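Continuing the batch. This is chain 6 of the set; chains 1 through 5 are on the previous pages. Same settings as before, nothing changed between runs. Recording input and output for traceability.
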Amino acid sequence: MTGDALDLVIFDCDGVLVDSERICVEVDAMIMADLGVAFTEAEIVELFVGSSAEVYTAVVEERLGRPLERGWQRKYEHLYDAALADRLTAVDGVTQALADLTVPVCVASNGDHEGIRRSLRIAALSGHFEGRVFSAADVSRGKPAPDLFLHAARSMGADPARCAVIEDSAYGVRAARAAGMRAFGYCGGLNPAARLAGPGTVVFDDMRDLPGLLAARDAGR
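Output for chain 6:
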């Protein structure tokens, strides 16, 4: 890849690097049933995939009609841990895409540091991102606010206008646009292309195409 105009490529983790979203949606449905609140699978995808813990909690509380206790999600963490340990893999084609990129890369996810590193380790992707993992826990607001992406760019010494963000959720592409970064929406997972499309956003469905898309976008600027 030529791509000299880029300073940095920022990857979301879940659904972009690791194929975790389908697994997590199944666990989310189990949690909702335990709480006694009804969400369809389509609602879980639309409302929860790519959201921050604060957004997740607010949506559930609104549907429940009552507040949840602080740290309520901790009692369910073992469900995610067990399912991911058993079934998690890298997103199809992402290992090849990472090998073909020459631009610096990092991860910026709404997940916590421990969870992000665990997922990268299980999917054998840790080596690509050593020392370059950023979490919503590092900033005051997670996605869809731009804070996390701007923090990642600042930490990596990159100009936001020369950063590309790879996302698979509406929250993520909104955050990328708000940060003034080039957004690439991966629709090979649960979110349809229409949910990711928008100003300044390239939508694609095969991770193997990413290096070429980044290079073409650079050439067109």
